[in-house]
Amino acid sequence: MRPTRISILLCALLAAPVLPTNAQSRPDPTAPGAPVPAAAYRSAFAGYRGLGDEPVGDWRAANDEVRRIGGWREYAREAQSPEEKPGAAPPAKAAPAGPAAPAEGALPGHGHHGVPGGKQ
What we know:
Elements: H1 3-15, H2 18-25, H3 59-69, H4 71-80
């Protein structure tokens, strides 16, 4: 016998006397007089902490800050030309649209759904 088989056999022999004692110490759950643990209710909202009101800042100061930055035009420029980070790869181009290969395990005859000119 190999050492692994011997160790498995040894573990099985040592665990055999332990198994019946664990099974005998538990009460039969189907017995009419079996003890039942008390039901406890805990609300899902027990630990809820409501969102508090945030202090409102000075709207004039916020407007002045936006004006200093360049206003809405600056935000529009930022949206149109994303910043390029050094060492970053250029954005990947989208794959051309076309019929997709049927998924593995797809039913036969269902590969043309949604394809122009395909079976509907």
